[in-house]
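Repro:
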Amino acid sequence: MTSIRIFSCLAAWVLLVACHGQAQQPDTPAVAPPSDSAPASEGSPALFPHTDKTRYLILGQANIIFQAHAPFHSPYSGANSMLGRGEYKTSLIGTLYTGFEVVKKPRFALDAIFDMESAGGRGVSEALGLAGFTNLDVVRNPTLGSKPYMARYEIHQVVGFSDKLVDAGRTPFSLQPKLPDVRLEFWVGRMSLPDLLDLNSIGTDSHLQFLNWSVDNNGAWDYAANTRGYTDALVSEFTAHAFTARYALAAMPTVANGIDLSYDFKKDSGQNVELELRRSLLPGRKGAVRVLGFLNHANMGSYREQNQLALKGAAAPDITAHPQRTTKKYGVGLNFEQEVSSNGRVFGRFGWNDGATESYAYTEIDQTFELGADYSLKGFGRADDKFGITFVTNAVKRDHQWYLAHGGLGFLLGDGHLRYAREDIVEAYYNLHLWKGVYYALDGQFVAHPGYNADRGPVLVESVRMHVDF
């Protein structure tokens, strides 16, 4: 019950501050990538003034998340179970974004980007026991510590095919605020694929929106990344008016959830294609739909093969116990967003992968469906306050189910036994703009059948988040 008392005290303190705080400088919030929000620039809420007129970009952010849950029903547990007793944990991530416009002409803009980051603290149960984990900021290998590291170093090149310029918005990944409406862009270097793919202005940003892994990203997209979420990649993007096509070739980790990447692209690679159409179903409103496909090659095990081996012996199946080889994992995703009023928006995702090979880089989800909405309180004089709610349901396929039911361990899941059910999650948040670049949020996530196990849960995970844009 200690976690509940601590959470209650923090929540009360946040609400007390909210009653006395006043929002300043409305419009778009400052940058917190990957995000729908515009970068900190003139008129944006940030602790320090920023401008789009310089050739350099220097931004910073800090995100602190306190999470807790009370004891929940847990008749048994395994090595990778979410802890049934009450607990609380705090995570902290800080990022310094820098960039320089090597070539400033919009038609041939060339940006050099370099970001430093520090990720510390822990997630509840060390980020184990949930496929849709409750804190996207948590590094899945806490032994790495909080020592600062190079998060991104990349080159961004624009090749324009028209003289007409459109507002593109200055971001940490593209420094020119205006770009040709028909253009080809390239990014090459160290990056996170969700910086550029599967974006959604309602459900992408764990710093100002939802917190759950399977809400802010497509959970069935096993995108190439090391345990910190980064990879070395080439991304190309062609934009013509309201249409954009993207292709990404990225390095896969050497082992599931590993920190090291493989550069033998003949054997190990993640290939991704996304098509985006920015059209609205409602007149006078904004909307977009995106279709994503991916194909991974890596040293991934087969759930069915390891299950068959386990049936012949007495040991539990082990997805890593196979000779070095290259296998494939593929999947598709759908992502949409639609403005329905001046204050309200809806969004959703669907994701599916073959489910036959090992969950390797992101999380253990073979199918996901999500539907949610957010609502701005600008009509109540709180232009940067927002409320959001979403429902997401995750699943794994039969071979993956059998593997977990007979004691198999993934890099996130493994209760030692399993009575299967879909992992259903409802998340809601209220994001409060307190002062300049300072935001607080209250967030609750109700998880039924954590880790797909009908014998465990449900569990309510409560969060308080503080976000600062410098």
